[in-house]
């Protein structure tokens, strides 16, 4: 099968991924083989390709927002059948035995394996994965619209959960990219009032269209103090600005993997039980709960579709912030 493979981390401009013919993986007892039709491209893929994350295995096929059809099932597979349309996300395997796995925090499992990082991912014609880490894709999305749900959607949703968002609350979203534009639709579903902070006027317009009650830029004060603030932009100074925006007892959550250093700030900003925290990956429960909301309420997912052969160019566009929407690769010709 064809796979777009990384042999050595390189800058995106140097065409780091090569199209190769590699063996089709074989299916274990609890595994599905999925023929891939679409795979989203995420900032984490760019970090992997450029070597900003330590790479456990090379050569490697990146990609972790995968949609496709079940083409083969292992003998102990129970949840899925041949021909089912399924989705595969970042969390690929966990140990099931450590204290994190036992306490519903499997996203923190030290043995966790991630799709397109520890094991080959979705920039390929097929993938084999344990069925327990696979999601059903709701019928109200085509393959391309469904792809961003699997990382931007699920991880963005976990940020709402870690921030402790309750129905009807006032919630600030700082940065309005792929995660935030799905998170706002969950917040609307929960009857929350959403306040969106973004530098881009295009993003602020989209936020208004998706239900924001107020838009501005980080550093502007919202008209009312917020209950929760979620930072999707990788800028540490915004954490401090968001602390100024939350009411006593409010929570400020960082939803990103990377962030520039957080500047020093006076204790008075944290006083009155304000809280700072962060999100790492997501559990399968987060994924299932988010997909249930996505099934009940059709979310608008803005995508730009590219042939898989253009993956290297897409990574450059992503790096230079030149994409109009979330990039999704059309894998099946
Ligand atoms: Zn991702
Ligand atoms: Zn574990």
UniProtKB/TrEMBL annotation:
Residues 29-139 form the Alcohol dehydrogenase-like N-terminal domain. Keywords: Metal-binding, Oxidoreductase, Zinc. CDD domains: CAD2 (cd08298). Gene3D superfamilies: Medium-chain alcohol dehydrogenases, catalytic domain, NAD(P)-binding Rossmann-like Domain. The keyword Signal does not apply. The keyword Lyase does not apply. InterPro entries: ADH-like_N, ADH_Zn_typ-2, GroES-like_sf, NAD(P)-bd_dom_sf. Pfam families: ADH_N. Its cofactor is Zn(2+). It comes from the Bacteria. Belongs to the zinc-containing alcohol dehydrogenase family. This is Zinc-dependent alcohol dehydrogenase family protein.
